[in-house]
Amino acid sequence: MQPRVPTRQQFAPSFRQLSRLSFWLHLFLGCVSGTMLVIALLSQDAAPQAQTALTPIGMILACGAFLAIGFRAYWAYRYRHLAQQLEHPAPGACPTRDSVIQALKIGLIVSCAGLVAAFFAAEFMGIEALTKALAQPQGAAIYTPRIAVRSLDILFLLASLNMLGAHLLGSFNSLELLHWITE
C-alpha cells in the first residue's frame, strides 16, 4: 500500500510548529556563533602568529556558514508564513504543493552548503590549533607567543561547531518536511 500524501490540514500545523522551532534554534545558535566570531575577529592581535595557509580560508568559511545561518533563520520565518497560508480556508490563497516543495528544497540546499562550510572551517581551525600545539615543546615554558594555542583558536573552532549544529538541525527539519510532503 502506497503512503498517502498529507492533506494541507494535516501538513500545515506540523509545518508551522517545525518552522517556529527552526527559526528560534537558528536565531539562538546564530547569535551565539556570531558573538564568538565577532569576539575572535576583533581580538586578533597584531603579534605575528604561526598560521597555516588554511587559516584565512577557515575564517572566510566560518563567516560564510554564519551568513547561511542568517538566511536559514529568515527562511524558517518564511516557512511560518507558508504554513499560515496553507491553513487559510480559501483554496486560492494557499501556495501550491510545488511551491512548498521548492521552498523546502532551497532551505535544504542552504543548510547543506552551510554544513559543508562550517565543517571545513572547523577542520581548518582545528588543524591550526593542532599545528600550534604540536609546535610547542612539551613540559616547557613557551617563550614564543606565535606558537601558543590561543583561546581565540578555540573560539573559532567552537563557533564553527555551533554553526554545524544549526545547519544540521535545519537540514533535518527540511528533510523531514520534504519527505513527508513527497511520500
From TrEMBL:
The chain crosses the membrane at residues 21-42, 54-75, 106-127, 147-169. The keyword Transmembrane applies. This is DUF3611 family protein. PROSITE patterns: PROKAR_LIPOPROTEIN. InterPro entries: DUF3611. Keywords: Membrane, Transmembrane, Transmembrane helix. Pfam families: DUF3611. It comes from Lyngbya confervoides BDU141951.
